[in-house]
Design goal:
31 helices; two-stranded antiparallel ribbon; about 750 residues; about 5% strand; mainly alpha; 6 strands
């Protein structure tokens, strides 16, 4: 069990283990296993080495359009030939090979995203010392692995063709497909000779679904009720309850806020607050809770002032235009103005259309056929927006007639738009009118340059004939449930993006979305009721060897909790979470050493009272120059631009923060008080309850006995009192893989 192993690892790393492991013997050293035959070596390559090369190396050194550093790692000959820095492997001196130096971060650092695990390093070291055995002379490292589809050549981009509802494949498993989603996925698996993983157990499933839809763990009572519910529609009832929860909007608003670069300060040195920016955040939460159709959702944000300038909701939605960086003392005001417009164009193009149109600000797009002229035609829709200022506020009367200050946008005057040569506001080229990128709309739609042009833009964006908008949204919904989109680069469907893995499924979802009136919850319900979503995350050797990156979706991809989920789960598990919706943002305590990094330590961060500070993370004030440590270390979104995918890093500061950080230790103490109060005077009962709260499953008796011995050892050998020992035990549970990862 992953959770038990992780808890033991934490104890060991904490320097309280009673026994030290004996030194191991590495392959190739005295005492190692004898040399293997050629058959054994090539079997080892197929079983152990090839999946690592595929997963870690070939994207940059064998698959992509550009080979990094001139080095290919997809054949034995290419590895020996090497790249710009010489041979990757020197057979006469294997331990000095560039490949091994790179993976151990000895001057070179590959892969750049982070060191590969020690076990994989050992596999590659053993392979290099064995003189690079390969499956056949010159054979490709791809072998029989089921890879993502080959990148399409420029000009054959499937995503610019109209969305056509594809025919649902016939089930290949005797009618076992739960819905059309499974029919598409099962057809792909059958073609690749892959068997899907079995269904996840019910405790795992409710934890997965509850986190995915609300961002919070289920309570022990909810888990017990679902596990005991024998009705055939028990899971459907669970999904419907979670979709109707007010916490759904709090979770899913965070995805949209990532995309639009939501922050509540202007950035730069002073980083002053954007007044009432939190109203925009509450608007998004409310819209998603109410399942506001996506076409209306876009219209209110891009043209709310044109819809109804007297509506608090519509004007608050236009806060979309005021979320970005703003320099109150720019060196070059004209350039700063266009930088702000560029951020709007980039966000709109990438978030709604999956187009990196902003690449054409200074020159024609180097990969996609987007001329510079098309960039400025899109910018022309936003040219007349009043420039940002220190407040961006207007007073609008609410339904009761009371004036409400909202951060919003509005138009001022009417300006000409010119192509800027090399992007310089001082080198104006031809004049252009508002228009759509020709790549998607080759002149079939005409737009006016006067008032209402942004409403006309939204009309075009959500027109069913637009080939991108529905596809991009359907892909994002899939991404947020499976951790990776059917198009893995969700904001770039172009030539620099990754190819789609299931094009027919994506088109079916997009057409279903439009047919359902652009409502998102029905699509999410379909996804969550599919067999694909309900699968176990456990691997099987055959599928892992053929499709190590799970392109075929033969299992559910395990993921780490997001930054907000980590903090919120700790608060909920300890019993400290305050579930109050909406309102001004909160300022949790930040350690003095972090505040000291500001030019004026503590500026703009007045700590909230303890009860307010224990609210959900979506309500934490987002200050560009200052972050709450537990959110920053667990990869919260970068707010300086649109964030379509969060990086998931594994770095020492995460473990150090969870073990030694003030917040983690405070929650561990609260957690211990909670279990001591709810199971008083019964150590076994306290341990059982703690495991239920932290993992959303029933503990095993052997597990309880082993954990009781750990707590008793702390009292006996470390001279801790019973309460302090329980606190340390609860801290370990908050650090366990089972707590931080979602199966």
């Amino acid at each position: 069990m992953r959770g038990r192993q992780s808890r033991r690892a934490i104890w060991s790393g904490w320097a309280i283990a009673m026994l030290a492991a004996a030194p191991g013997v590495r392959a190739g050293e005295p005492g190692a296993e004898p040399a293997r035959s050629t058959a054994e070596q090539t079997s080892f390559f197929e079983r152990e080495v090839r999946p690592i090369l595929k997963a870690r190396c070939l994207k940059c050194h064998g698959e992509g359009p550009k080979i990094k550093g001139g080095l290919r790692l997809d054949s034995r000959e290419a590895i020996l030939r090497g790249g710009d820095q010489g041979p990757a492997v020197v057979l006469a001196k294997p331990d000095e090979s560039l490949l091994l130096r790179a993976i151990r971060y000895d001057e070179l650092e590959m892969p750049p995203a982070g060191k590969i695990p020690d076990r994989e390093q050992d596999v590659l070291k053993r392979w290099v010392r064995d003189q690079l055995p390969w499956s056949g002379s010159g054979a490709s490292a791809h072998g029989t692995v089921v890879a993502a589809p080959a990148r399409k050549k420029q000009g054959s981009d499937w995503s610019i063709h109209p969305v056509k509802r594809p025919t649902v494949p016939r089930p290949t498993n005797g009618g076992g497909a739960r819905n059309p989603i499974d029919a598409f996925i099962d057809a792909r698996l059958a073609a690749g000779g892959l068997e899907p993983s079995p269904p996840a157990d019910r405790a795992c499933l409710i934890r997965r679904a509850t986190f995915d839809l609300t961002g919070l763990p289920p309570t022990p009572e909810e888990v017990a009720a679902f596990v005991a519910d024998t009705r055939p529609d028990a899971y459907e009832r669970l999904v419907d309850r979670l979709l109707a929860s007010p916490h759904y909007g709090e979770k899913w608003a965070r995805h949209w806020l990532d995309l639009v670069g939501y922050a509540e300060t202007n950035g730069y040195e002073r980083d002053n607050a954007k007044p009432f920016a939190w109203r925009y955040r509450d608007y998004v939460i409310s819209a998603l809770n109410g399942d506001k159709p996506y076409d209306r959702f876009l219209r209110e944000q891009l043209a709310g002032d044109e819809i109804d300038p007297n509506s608090v909701e519509c004007m608050t939605a236009t806060g979309f235009y005021r979320l970005g960086l703003w320099d109150d003392e720019p060196v070059d005001r004209a350039l700063a103005r266009y930088d702000g417009l560029d951020a709007i164009v980039a966000t709109t193009g990438q978030v709604v259309l999956g187009m990196t149109v902003n690449c054409a600000r200074c020159h024609d797009h180097k990969v996609d056929p987007i001329p510079q002229r098309d960039y400025y035609r899109l910018l022309a829709f936003f040219q007349d927006l009043a420039p940002p200022d220190a407040k961006n506020l207007k007073k609008v009367k609410d339904a009761a007639g009371r004036p409400v200050e909202v951060m919003c946008a509005w138009e001022r005057g009417q300006s000409e738009t010119h192509v800027l040569l090399r992007g310089s506001p001082y080198a104006k080229g031809e004049r252009v009118e508002p228009g759509a990128p020709a790549l998607i709309d080759p002149g079939t739609t005409t737009f006016t340059a006067g008032p209402g042009k942004r409403s006309a833009l939204v009309d075009w964006l959500v027109d069913p004939r637009n080939p991108r908008t529905a596809r991009v949204l359907a892909n994002r919904l899939w991404q947020y449930h499976f951790g990776r989109g059917l198009v893995p680069t969700p904001s770039d469907f172009g030539g620099l993006g990754e190819p789609v893995t299931h094009p027919e499924l994506l088109d079916w979802l997009a057409s279903e979305l439009v047919a359902g009136g652009w409502r998102m919850k029905p699509i999410q319900r379909l996804i969550m009721l599919s067999s694909a979503y309900r699968r176990s995350s456990r691997a099987n050797p055959h599928a892992l060897a053929r499709d190590p990156l799970d392109h075929g979706l033969w299992r559910y991809p395990m993921r780490r909790l997001s930054a907000e989920e980590v903090r919120d789960a700790m608060l909920m598990t300890s019993g400290a979470l305050v579930n109050e919706l909406g309102g001004p943002s909160i300022h949790p305590p930040i350690p003095p050493e972090v505040l000291a990094g500001q030019s004026i330590p503590g500026y703009g961060w007045s700590v909230s009272p303890p009860r307010a500070a224990a609210r959900r993370s979506v309500y934490v004030h987002i200050k560009r120059s200052l972050s709450v440590p537990i959110l920053a270390t667990h990869d919260a979104a970068d707010t300086d631009s649109t964030c379509p995918v969060r990086f998931t890093t594994t770095v020492p500061t995460q473990a150090l923060g969870l073990l030694n950080g003030a917040f983690a230790n405070e929650q561990a103490a609260r957690f211990a008080r909670r279990v001591a109060t709810e199971a008083p005077g019964d150590l076994d009962g306290e341990i059982r309850l703690a495991i239920r709260l932290a993992t959303a499953r029933e503990p095993r008796e052997q597990e309880v006995r082993e954990d009781r011995e750990i707590v008793s050892w702390l009292v006996r050998e470390r001279a801790l009192d019973a309460r302090s020992a329980l606190v340390q035990y609860c801290l370990v549970l908050l650090n366990a893989n089972e707590f931080v990862y979602l199966d």
